[in-house]
Write a structure and sequence with these properties.
Blueprint (H helix, E strand, L loop, with lengths): L7 H4 L4 H24 L3 H27 L25
Helix pairs in contact: 2-3
């Protein structure tokens, strides 16, 4: 296990807007798949695209919810990294 530096909250980034646009792209493909497979008479594939549509809509709901929540607390640069645990070795002995 690698020792953490403690600056993960500062360097972490969440690609929510990218996930939103990819979700919209998936939404279009899922709706297109439902229509196309229903027209050519493949109900199994249309149902599969419908299930995919539900997953995409749920993901989009969660992404929009997280975007609206805004950024959460992240310590600034004046907060030092965590001090490593000096009481035990970083790896168990073999």
């Amino acid at each position: 296990m690698i020792m953490r530096s403690g600056n993960e909250p500062i360097t972490a980034r969440s690609p929510l807007r990218l996930r939103f646009w990819l979700g919209l792209w998936g939404l279009l493909w899922a709706v297109g798949g439902i229509v196309a497979f229903a027209v050519i008479g493949r109900p199994g594939w249309a149902i599969a695209c419908g299930v995919l549509l539900l997953v995409v809509v749920t993901d989009l709901f969660m992404v929009v919810r997280h975007i609206r929540q805004g950024p959460h607390f992240q310590p600034g640069r004046d907060v030092p990294p965590y001090t490593p645990d000096r009481h035990r070795p970083p790896f168990p002995p073999p």
